[in-house]
Amino acid sequence: MVSTMRGAPTRRGRKQTITPATLMLVVFGFLALTFIVLMPAQAEARVLDGAGTASLENSPVEPVEPTAPSSGGQGDVSSSATSTGGGLGVPGLPVISSVVCLRQCVSSSRPTRGAIIAIRGKNLDRVTRVIFRSKSGRIATRLRTRSVGAVRVTVPKRTVRGYLSVVDSGGNRARSPREISIFPISAIPIQVFPVRGPISFGSSGSRFGAGRPGHIHQGQDVSASCGTTLVSIRKARVVYNQWDDGGGNYLVLRNIGTNTNFVYMHMLRRSPLKVGQVVGAGARIGRVGNTGRSYGCHLHFEYWIGPWQTGGKPIDPLPFLRSLLK
Length: 326
Prior knowledge:
Elements lengths: L19 H23 L32 H4 L2 E3 L5 E3 L3 E13 L2 E13 L4 E8 L2 E5 L1 E4 L3 E5 L10 E4 L4 E3 L19 E2 L14 E2 L2 E2 L3 E4 L5 E3 L4 E9 L3 E8 L4 E8 L10 E2 L4 E4 L10 E8 L7 E3 L2 H7 L2
Antiparallel strand pairs: 1-2, 3-4, 4-8, 5-6, 5-9, 7-8, 9-10, 11-15, 12-13, 14-21, 15-20, 16-17, 16-19, 17-18, 18-21, 21-22
Protein backbone atom coordinates (compact mmCIF):
# COMPACT_ATOMS: atom_id res chain seq x y z
CA MET A 1 0.00 0.00 0.00
CA VAL A 2 1.22 3.38 -0.92
CA SER A 3 0.58 6.01 1.64
CA THR A 4 -0.07 9.61 0.80
CA MET A 5 1.03 12.59 2.70
CA ARG A 6 -1.66 14.46 4.53
CA GLY A 7 -2.44 17.75 2.88
CA ALA A 8 -1.00 16.79 -0.53
CA PRO A 9 -3.48 17.47 -3.37
CA THR A 10 -4.85 14.49 -5.11
CA ARG A 11 -5.87 14.36 -8.84
CA ARG A 12 -9.54 14.07 -7.88
CA GLY A 13 -9.52 16.92 -5.38
CA ARG A 14 -7.51 19.43 -7.53
CA LYS A 15 -9.45 22.60 -8.51
CA GLN A 16 -8.70 24.75 -11.63
CA THR A 17 -8.56 28.44 -10.77
CA ILE A 18 -8.22 31.59 -13.00
CA THR A 19 -5.00 33.34 -12.33
CA PRO A 20 -4.65 37.13 -12.43
CA ALA A 21 -2.50 36.80 -15.54
CA THR A 22 -5.23 34.87 -17.39
CA LEU A 23 -7.87 37.44 -16.41
CA MET A 24 -5.73 40.28 -17.69
CA LEU A 25 -5.22 38.44 -20.98
CA VAL A 26 -9.02 38.03 -21.48
CA VAL A 27 -9.71 41.69 -20.69
CA PHE A 28 -7.00 42.88 -23.06
CA GLY A 29 -8.38 40.69 -25.88
CA PHE A 30 -11.91 42.10 -25.41
CA LEU A 31 -10.64 45.70 -25.47
CA ALA A 32 -8.60 45.04 -28.60
CA LEU A 33 -11.60 43.55 -30.42
CA THR A 34 -13.81 46.52 -29.41
CA PHE A 35 -11.18 48.98 -30.63
CA ILE A 36 -10.94 47.24 -34.03
CA VAL A 37 -14.72 47.25 -34.53
CA LEU A 38 -15.36 50.84 -33.43
CA MET A 39 -12.23 52.45 -34.85
CA PRO A 40 -13.82 53.70 -38.18
CA ALA A 41 -16.63 55.48 -36.33
CA GLN A 42 -14.27 56.99 -33.77
CA ALA A 43 -11.96 58.13 -36.56
CA GLU A 44 -14.88 59.99 -38.21
CA ALA A 45 -14.83 57.86 -41.37
CA ARG A 46 -16.87 59.45 -44.26
CA VAL A 47 -19.86 57.47 -45.45
CA LEU A 48 -21.32 57.46 -48.96
CA ASP A 49 -24.99 58.42 -49.07
CA GLY A 50 -26.79 55.48 -50.59
CA ALA A 51 -27.76 51.85 -50.28
CA GLY A 52 -25.15 49.25 -51.06
CA THR A 53 -22.14 51.51 -50.49
CA ALA A 54 -19.30 51.09 -48.05
CA SER A 55 -17.16 53.42 -45.93
CA LEU A 56 -13.91 53.26 -47.85
CA GLU A 57 -10.76 55.06 -46.88
CA ASN A 58 -9.72 55.36 -50.55
CA SER A 59 -13.03 55.43 -52.43
CA PRO A 60 -12.83 55.17 -56.26
CA VAL A 61 -15.34 58.04 -56.45
CA GLU A 62 -15.42 61.27 -54.51
CA PRO A 63 -18.07 60.95 -51.77
CA VAL A 64 -20.76 63.63 -51.82
CA GLU A 65 -22.34 64.72 -48.60
CA PRO A 66 -26.18 64.84 -48.61
CA THR A 67 -27.38 68.36 -49.38
CA ALA A 68 -30.48 70.03 -48.01
CA PRO A 69 -33.29 71.03 -50.45
CA SER A 70 -32.94 74.47 -52.00
CA SER A 71 -34.62 77.42 -50.31
CA GLY A 72 -37.23 77.47 -53.06
CA GLY A 73 -38.51 74.12 -51.85
CA GLN A 74 -38.72 72.77 -55.40
CA GLY A 75 -35.81 70.32 -55.34
CA ASP A 76 -37.72 67.07 -55.68
CA VAL A 77 -40.85 68.49 -57.31
CA SER A 78 -39.57 70.30 -60.38
CA SER A 79 -36.45 68.31 -61.20
CA SER A 80 -36.24 65.09 -63.18
CA ALA A 81 -32.95 64.08 -61.50
CA THR A 82 -32.83 60.61 -59.96
CA SER A 83 -30.74 59.64 -56.93
CA THR A 84 -27.88 57.13 -57.31
CA GLY A 85 -26.04 55.11 -54.65
CA GLY A 86 -23.45 57.88 -54.30
CA GLY A 87 -26.01 60.64 -53.77
CA LEU A 88 -25.34 62.11 -57.24
CA GLY A 89 -28.28 63.64 -59.16
CA VAL A 90 -28.57 62.02 -62.60
CA PRO A 91 -31.21 63.46 -64.97
CA GLY A 92 -33.86 60.96 -66.09
CA LEU A 93 -34.32 60.29 -69.78
CA PRO A 94 -37.30 62.04 -71.43
CA VAL A 95 -40.36 59.91 -72.15
CA ILE A 96 -43.41 60.86 -74.29
CA SER A 97 -46.70 59.21 -73.30
CA SER A 98 -49.21 61.21 -75.36
CA VAL A 99 -49.77 64.26 -77.55
CA VAL A 100 -52.94 66.33 -76.99
CA CYS A 101 -54.20 69.21 -79.10
CA LEU A 102 -55.27 72.21 -77.00
CA ARG A 103 -56.14 75.00 -79.44
CA GLN A 104 -57.02 75.22 -83.15
CA CYS A 105 -57.84 71.51 -83.31
CA VAL A 106 -60.05 69.23 -85.36
CA SER A 107 -60.22 67.12 -82.18
CA SER A 108 -58.04 66.52 -79.13
CA SER A 109 -55.92 64.05 -81.14
CA ARG A 110 -56.03 65.85 -84.51
CA PRO A 111 -54.07 69.12 -84.57
CA THR A 112 -53.84 71.57 -87.46
CA ARG A 113 -50.83 73.54 -88.67
CA GLY A 114 -50.45 76.37 -86.20
CA ALA A 115 -52.24 74.48 -83.42
CA ILE A 116 -50.98 74.50 -79.83
CA ILE A 117 -50.28 70.99 -78.56
CA ALA A 118 -49.21 69.52 -75.22
CA ILE A 119 -46.59 66.76 -75.27
CA ARG A 120 -47.08 64.81 -72.05
CA GLY A 121 -44.76 62.34 -70.38
CA LYS A 122 -41.90 62.21 -67.88
CA ASN A 123 -38.60 64.06 -67.36
CA LEU A 124 -39.50 66.78 -69.87
CA ASP A 125 -38.21 69.73 -67.82
CA ARG A 126 -34.82 69.65 -69.61
CA VAL A 127 -36.25 69.48 -73.14
CA THR A 128 -34.85 72.23 -75.37
CA ARG A 129 -36.27 71.31 -78.79
CA VAL A 130 -39.28 69.59 -80.32
CA ILE A 131 -38.75 68.18 -83.80
CA PHE A 132 -41.54 67.70 -86.36
CA ARG A 133 -41.44 66.10 -89.77
CA SER A 134 -41.79 68.09 -93.02
CA LYS A 135 -41.61 67.18 -96.70
CA SER A 136 -38.05 68.44 -96.88
CA GLY A 137 -36.80 66.92 -93.63
CA ARG A 138 -37.12 67.89 -90.00
CA ILE A 139 -38.33 71.09 -88.35
CA ALA A 140 -37.21 72.13 -84.87
CA THR A 141 -39.49 74.49 -82.98
CA ARG A 142 -39.12 76.51 -79.80
CA LEU A 143 -41.07 75.76 -76.64
CA ARG A 144 -44.02 77.76 -75.31
CA THR A 145 -43.94 76.25 -71.81
CA ARG A 146 -42.03 73.41 -70.15
CA SER A 147 -42.40 71.33 -66.98
CA VAL A 148 -41.49 67.85 -65.76
CA GLY A 149 -44.75 66.38 -67.07
CA ALA A 150 -45.53 68.40 -70.20
CA VAL A 151 -44.15 70.60 -72.96
CA ARG A 152 -46.30 72.95 -75.04
CA VAL A 153 -45.40 73.99 -78.59
CA THR A 154 -46.97 75.43 -81.72
CA VAL A 155 -47.16 73.08 -84.70
CA PRO A 156 -45.02 74.56 -87.53
CA LYS A 157 -46.75 75.56 -90.76
CA ARG A 158 -44.81 73.05 -92.91
CA THR A 159 -45.45 70.04 -90.66
CA VAL A 160 -46.70 66.80 -92.25
CA ARG A 161 -47.83 63.48 -90.80
CA GLY A 162 -45.14 61.68 -88.85
CA TYR A 163 -43.54 61.02 -85.48
CA LEU A 164 -42.39 63.96 -83.39
CA SER A 165 -39.50 63.84 -80.98
CA VAL A 166 -38.04 65.87 -78.12
CA VAL A 167 -34.37 66.55 -77.38
CA ASP A 168 -33.09 67.56 -73.95
CA SER A 169 -30.01 69.57 -72.98
CA GLY A 170 -27.98 66.38 -72.69
CA GLY A 171 -28.76 65.32 -76.26
CA ASN A 172 -31.17 62.58 -75.15
CA ARG A 173 -34.13 61.98 -77.47
CA ALA A 174 -37.62 60.54 -77.12
CA ARG A 175 -40.15 59.82 -79.86
CA SER A 176 -43.94 59.98 -79.75
CA PRO A 177 -45.59 56.55 -79.36
CA ARG A 178 -47.49 57.00 -82.65
CA GLU A 179 -47.48 59.18 -85.73
CA ILE A 180 -49.19 62.56 -85.49
CA SER A 181 -51.66 63.38 -88.27
CA ILE A 182 -51.76 67.07 -89.24
CA PHE A 183 -54.89 68.64 -90.73
CA PRO A 184 -55.65 71.93 -92.49
CA ILE A 185 -57.54 74.58 -90.55
CA SER A 186 -60.47 74.09 -92.92
CA ALA A 187 -60.98 70.63 -91.36
CA ILE A 188 -61.99 72.12 -88.01
CA PRO A 189 -65.73 71.48 -87.63
CA ILE A 190 -68.05 74.46 -87.29
CA GLN A 191 -70.33 72.55 -84.91
CA VAL A 192 -70.00 69.39 -82.81
CA PHE A 193 -72.27 67.45 -80.43
CA PRO A 194 -71.85 68.74 -76.85
CA VAL A 195 -71.49 65.39 -75.03
CA ARG A 196 -68.46 63.14 -75.68
CA GLY A 197 -69.90 59.77 -74.74
CA PRO A 198 -72.99 57.52 -74.88
CA ILE A 199 -76.21 59.55 -74.42
CA SER A 200 -79.99 59.24 -74.26
CA PHE A 201 -82.62 61.89 -74.91
CA GLY A 202 -84.95 60.18 -72.42
CA SER A 203 -88.74 60.21 -72.52
CA SER A 204 -91.39 62.96 -72.74
CA GLY A 205 -90.47 64.30 -69.30
CA SER A 206 -87.02 65.23 -70.62
CA ARG A 207 -88.40 67.28 -73.52
CA PHE A 208 -88.71 71.02 -74.02
CA GLY A 209 -92.07 72.27 -72.70
CA ALA A 210 -92.60 69.41 -70.23
CA GLY A 211 -94.37 70.43 -67.02
CA ARG A 212 -92.35 71.43 -63.97
CA PRO A 213 -93.53 72.79 -60.59
CA GLY A 214 -94.29 76.46 -61.25
CA HIS A 215 -92.83 76.56 -64.78
CA ILE A 216 -92.24 74.57 -67.96
CA HIS A 217 -89.05 72.85 -68.99
CA GLN A 218 -87.01 75.28 -71.13
CA GLY A 219 -84.48 72.82 -72.44
CA GLN A 220 -83.67 69.24 -73.40
CA ASP A 221 -82.24 66.76 -70.92
CA VAL A 222 -79.41 64.62 -72.31
CA SER A 223 -78.66 61.66 -70.02
CA ALA A 224 -75.03 60.55 -69.77
CA SER A 225 -72.70 59.15 -67.13
CA CYS A 226 -71.44 61.61 -64.53
CA GLY A 227 -67.96 62.78 -65.51
CA THR A 228 -68.54 62.55 -69.27
CA THR A 229 -66.75 65.40 -71.06
CA LEU A 230 -68.81 68.37 -72.26
CA VAL A 231 -67.56 70.49 -75.16
CA SER A 232 -68.51 73.74 -76.83
CA ILE A 233 -70.77 73.14 -79.82
CA ARG A 234 -69.23 75.97 -81.80
CA LYS A 235 -66.91 78.94 -81.38
CA ALA A 236 -68.35 80.99 -78.54
CA ARG A 237 -67.66 83.45 -75.75
CA VAL A 238 -68.34 82.70 -72.07
CA VAL A 239 -71.13 84.95 -70.75
CA TYR A 240 -71.95 83.32 -67.38
CA ASN A 241 -70.13 80.75 -65.26
CA GLN A 242 -72.02 80.44 -61.97
CA TRP A 243 -73.91 78.34 -59.43
CA ASP A 244 -77.69 78.19 -59.07
CA ASP A 245 -79.73 76.16 -56.56
CA GLY A 246 -81.84 74.83 -59.42
CA GLY A 247 -79.37 74.59 -62.30
CA GLY A 248 -76.32 73.73 -60.18
CA ASN A 249 -73.04 74.54 -61.89
CA TYR A 250 -74.01 76.17 -65.16
CA LEU A 251 -72.36 77.87 -68.13
CA VAL A 252 -73.82 80.20 -70.78
CA LEU A 253 -72.00 80.56 -74.13
CA ARG A 254 -72.81 83.26 -76.69
CA ASN A 255 -72.12 81.86 -80.15
CA ILE A 256 -69.83 84.20 -82.09
CA GLY A 257 -71.26 85.45 -85.36
CA THR A 258 -74.83 84.52 -84.43
CA ASN A 259 -77.64 85.84 -82.23
CA THR A 260 -77.85 82.62 -80.21
CA ASN A 261 -76.82 81.39 -76.75
CA PHE A 262 -76.30 77.82 -75.50
CA VAL A 263 -76.76 76.92 -71.82
CA TYR A 264 -75.22 73.94 -69.99
CA MET A 265 -76.59 73.06 -66.52
CA HIS A 266 -76.05 70.56 -63.67
CA MET A 267 -72.32 70.22 -64.43
CA LEU A 268 -70.22 68.12 -62.09
CA ARG A 269 -67.99 71.04 -61.11
CA ARG A 270 -67.77 74.67 -61.99
CA SER A 271 -66.29 75.14 -65.44
CA PRO A 272 -62.61 76.19 -65.50
CA LEU A 273 -63.43 78.79 -68.17
CA LYS A 274 -63.46 82.51 -67.38
CA VAL A 275 -66.17 84.99 -68.33
CA GLY A 276 -65.17 86.65 -71.59
CA GLN A 277 -62.99 83.75 -72.69
CA VAL A 278 -63.43 82.52 -76.28
CA VAL A 279 -63.51 78.78 -76.96
CA GLY A 280 -63.54 76.90 -80.23
CA ALA A 281 -65.84 74.14 -81.42
CA GLY A 282 -65.02 70.96 -79.52
CA ALA A 283 -63.18 72.72 -76.69
CA ARG A 284 -63.69 71.15 -73.27
CA ILE A 285 -65.92 73.22 -71.02
CA GLY A 286 -66.83 70.85 -68.16
CA ARG A 287 -68.28 67.45 -67.25
CA VAL A 288 -71.75 65.95 -66.92
CA GLY A 289 -72.97 66.08 -63.34
CA ASN A 290 -75.97 65.96 -61.02
CA THR A 291 -75.75 69.31 -59.19
CA GLY A 292 -78.63 71.59 -58.22
CA ARG A 293 -82.19 70.23 -58.43
CA SER A 294 -81.32 67.19 -60.47
CA TYR A 295 -82.34 63.54 -60.11
CA GLY A 296 -79.70 61.76 -62.14
CA CYS A 297 -76.57 62.46 -64.16
CA HIS A 298 -77.47 64.52 -67.23
CA LEU A 299 -76.92 67.71 -69.18
CA HIS A 300 -79.78 70.20 -69.18
CA PHE A 301 -79.22 72.01 -72.50
CA GLU A 302 -80.98 75.22 -73.59
CA TYR A 303 -80.99 76.94 -77.00
CA TRP A 304 -81.83 80.67 -76.86
CA ILE A 305 -82.49 83.10 -79.70
CA GLY A 306 -81.25 86.46 -78.46
CA PRO A 307 -79.86 87.16 -74.98
CA TRP A 308 -80.32 84.49 -72.32
CA GLN A 309 -82.99 85.50 -69.79
CA THR A 310 -82.79 89.21 -70.78
CA GLY A 311 -85.04 89.65 -73.80
CA GLY A 312 -84.37 86.47 -75.77
CA LYS A 313 -86.49 83.34 -75.90
CA PRO A 314 -85.74 79.60 -75.69
CA ILE A 315 -86.60 77.17 -78.49
CA ASP A 316 -86.81 73.37 -78.59
CA PRO A 317 -83.16 72.25 -78.95
CA LEU A 318 -83.88 68.58 -79.73
CA PRO A 319 -84.04 68.87 -83.57
CA PHE A 320 -80.76 70.81 -83.53
CA LEU A 321 -79.06 68.26 -81.23
CA ARG A 322 -80.23 65.37 -83.41
CA SER A 323 -78.80 67.09 -86.49
CA LEU A 324 -75.34 67.15 -84.86
CA LEU A 325 -75.38 63.34 -84.58
CA LYS A 326 -75.86 62.75 -88.32
